Amino acid sequence: MHELLLFASVPAHQHHELLQQLAGLTAMQPRHRLERRLVFKAYRKPGLVTTRVGASQDVQGADLQRLNKMLNGGMYYTQVVGPVTKADFGATSLSGMSASHDADVSMSGTDQSSYCYENQSWKLEFRDIPEAGTRSAVTTRLMASASLPKGDIAVPMNAWGYSFVTEYMVEGDVFVQNDIVIFLHRVLLYPQAESQDLHGPRRQLPAHHELTPLERTGSYVLQAAITVQDGSNQEMMKTASQHLFGLREQLKSAVRLEQADRLSLDTRAK
Amino acid sequence: MSALTPDQIKTLEQSRQRLVQLTHSLASLITSLNQSDPLPSWTSLQSQATIISNNLLTISDHLSDNRDLLATLVAYPSPSYPSRNPANTVALEQLLRTKLDPRVEDWVARGRKAGGSLAAASPPFVPGNLGGAGNGYGGSAVAAAAAAAGAAGNDNGLDDLGALAELWDWAPVEANQEARRRNWGGNFTLEEREQGVGNVVTGLRRVLEDDDDDDSESEEGESGEEEGEGEPDEMEIVGVRRKSGVGQGLEFDIAPVSATAASAPHAPGQQKGVAPVVPLDEILRFMTVGMMPSQR
Fold it and tell me: Which of A55, A227, B6, B17 has the largest count of CB atoms under 10 Å?
């Protein structure tokens, strides 16, 4: 699957207004979305055969070559995304957290903590580095998503050769206009206290007000995305980018949607 | 019927060469305008114009330097002139004309007219200007035109001198009195406040908004109304806020990734607009690989 994207930075003071504008444009109420995002990085398992690079005369077996390519070729950062609700925050405190608040979430815990890490559902989101040298002014990249088992995800990810890098929270609102998914969001960071020696995802969430935005002024990122099933279908890709340009025109007076810097979306692990 | 000295012939020859240069540069400008499709870039047009004006300057210098000689010269055909050749006959007729070519007459008339309107357009209370304009052009025809216009303009100029002195007497005192009547400071005058600041602000806003925003007519209208209803004290705050908005616009121009400071300033009571300090690609980079924006 391919994804076509346009981005814009939205100053905090414009956020409310833009929400209204988008609600009017898309004729829908914003869907609030809170996501835990864990960043994992592929690593080389120690003990793998490292090939000699350079002009040596010894001929490698074709199988060995292919194996090395598979093992060392694509090393990517990848993300694991888990939806949460506002009721999940600060769940360690028992006060006032009735289960009815998060009844719409599959993970509504029955034990004293309303947020249960063991029941957290996860989705693996792989994103390739955006395609280079495309003439159209949209960011295009290969993407794939897959559902993951619930619960502690660090262990299976580690088994697949991914190490935990960091995690953050994404807070935002989703709109859908025809085939365009508009996500107005910002990154929230967990409080830094005693997290220095944290080598895995948090098992509990801090209170929502303890999260600090990554961007100190609280600005948002507007992302407009179209997913195309068959990225090799040029006609379809062209139509999709035309739609994005249409949206860009419509929002021109409010925000400037632009192609993202390709290297800032570089998911390759070096 | 004295023969020309070699020096005089050289002068004539120089005039001819400079005029040929001028025709060439004019012709090349005309061809480049006629033939190149998109039009030549303005830099090239400008350099051609510079060349032409330099040519004109040299020619006019040359003509005025040798004015005595050129004014007294008379052309006539000598018996050896090969007038049988039709081409030569045309040249001969041109040389022997006593009046200007009709086209040239038109040019001269246009030049005189332009010189006259120039003199009229120049501020009448600075009498030195007329002479200055004439000197600047330097070309004999234009200079003559300017001189003529100057003669015509002088009638007014003399009258104006009196008026000018009067004006100078009157203006400083009056300006000072006007200034004393006002309480300086703040963004609006008392009169403007009394008449409703909304009107004044809208005019200013249009100009400001045109700079960083294309069309936000509806928002403009709304916020304009809000401002109109508010108290004068609040108005000042709005003004200041708008200034910060302008600052944002500049900032946004510098940081190409971030959005424009698009919409009108917010309704009173909302927080002041602050431009994002972390650029968009830094945020995206963090979201992609978890690298904090400060770690570069």
Answer: A227
Quote the pLDDT of residue B69: 86
> Residue A109 in contact with residue A87, Cβ under 8 Å?
no
Domain A2-265 falls under CATH 2.60.40.1970: no
Note whether residue B104 is domain-resident. Answer: no
Residue B262 at interface with chain A, using a CB cutoff of 8 Å:
yes
**Full domain range(s) for residue B15:** 6-98
**Is the distance from CB of B287 to CB of A183 less than 8 angstroms?**
no
Q: Which residue of A has its CA nearest to B266?
A: A13
How many domains are contained in chain B? 3
Q: Which residues of B touch A258 (CB under 8 A)?
A: 257
Which chain A residues in 58-97 lie under 8 Å from chain B, judged by CB atoms? 77
Q: How far is CA B256 from the centre of its chain?
A: 31
- Phi and psi (nearest 5°) for B246? -65, -40
Same domain flag for B204 and B166: no
Residues 6+ away with beta carbon under 8 Å from B139: B56, B59, B60, B111
Examine the domain organization and report whether B74 and B128 are in the same domain: no
**Cα–Cα distance, A80 to A117 (Å, whole number):** 14
> What is the tens place of the pLDDT at every residue in A58-96?
556 677 777 666 666 668 899 999 998 888 887 654 434
Sole residue written with tokens 């693996």: A124
CA distance B151 to B138: 17
Per-residue pLDDT, B190: 64
